[in-house]
Amino acid sequence: MAAHTHHAHGDPAAWTDHAARTLAEHGTRSGGARRAVVATLADQDCCASAQEIHERLRAAGRPVGIASVYRSLDLLHGLGLVTRVETGDGVARYEPALPGGEHHHHLVCVRCGGVEAFEDDALERAIHAVGDRVDFDVTAHDVALRGRCRACRAA
Ligand SMILES: [Zn+2]
Ligand SMILES: [Zn+2]
Question: What CATH number belongs to 6-154?
């Protein structure tokens, strides 16, 4: 993984609080599995699959069944608390959706499957300029650039 900029995800503690509040507002008990999944998501710089989250929890000594991880991610996604990242390999990956809209986009290597984050202010401005031009109120967007990462080009 390349170095990621941390501000893309803002303050992880703020997102964790926001997630706990939203879950409580929806009458959802913040169970142990759900809390563990939220904590793992808050701790990562970019997206992770259910399997990766499951493995991270096990490595951290907090085993959570894969079915519970999937259920938690579905719930969080339904409440708009996580963004689902489609990288084209059929595996859904998830990352915190910050209430302030701070976000990043992804570079997907078609050879090794690696996913890296990037940000670009000019791209953000261009997307909003397109929205203005086509008279469309853009409230969200996904951008994934596919290609070959540096390591795969060197190999
Ligand atoms: Zn990401
Ligand atoms: Zn963007």
Answer: 1.10.10.10
Average pLDDT over residues 35-44: 94
**Cβ < 5 A residues, ion ligand 1:** 46-47, 95, 117
The sign one gets for the Cα dihedral 70, 72, 74, 76 is: negative
Considering every ligand atom shown, identify the ligand nearest to the alpha carbon of residue 117 and give its number.
1
118 CA → ligand 2 middle, Å: 9
Amino acid letter for position 19: A
Sequence letter at residue 88: G
What is the DSSP pairing of strand 144-147 with strand 115-118? unpaired
* pLDDT at residue number 89: 81
Q: How far apart are CA 132 and CA 153, in angstroms?
A: 38
Kindly report, residue by residue over 8-18, the tens digit of the pLDDT.
Answer: 446 778 899 99
Distance from the alpha carbon of residue 61 to the mean position of ligand 2, in angstroms: 35
Question: pTM for the full model?
Answer: 0.83
